[in-house]
Amino acid sequence: MKIPETIRINGIDFAIEQTQNLNDGDHVLYGQVHYGHSTIEINAQYQKHQAMCVTLWHEILHALCKIHSVHLGEHEEAIVDILAYGIYQVLQDNGRELFDIAD
Ligand SMILES: [Zn+2]
Fold first, then answer.
1. Helix 49-67 crosses helix 76-98 at what angle (to 10 degrees)?
2. Cα-to-centroid distance, 26 and ligand 1 (Å)
């Protein structure tokens, strides 16, 4: 999987920025969505490529939940993580069977 410069989510183009030293002031963040600025930041300092791909899916799923007012409650982070790892793995391992990808 590639990490593109932009990704369209529900009709909105989100810029993807690979950021060094991403944090909330107290903790390291691996990813963060800025809805008003339509930006997804991915922490490129503490993650290798595969982890950044999973983080991108994690943030996409957060964005979908927010846009569609899906409230997952106290388990949101765990649910989003399970789905992010699962989607990444299925697409990564089956991309050629699912999409018309040229060699
Ligand atoms: Zn999260």
1. 110
2. 16
Domains defined along the chain, listed by start = 6-98 (1.10.10)
Going from the Cα of 95 to the center of ligand 1, the distance in angstroms, rounded, reads 25
pLDDT tens track for 2-26: 999 999 999 999 999 999 999 999 9
CA of 5 to the centre of ligand 1 (A): 20
pLDDT at 103 over 70: no
Digit-coded pLDDT (tens) for 38-58? 999 999 999 999 999 999 999
Q: For residue 59, report the distance from its CA to the centre of ligand 1, in Å.
A: 6
The backbone torsions φ and ψ at residue 80, rounded to the nearest 5 degrees and listed phi first, read -65, -40
Q: Measure 58 CA to ligand 1 centroid, in angstroms.
A: 6
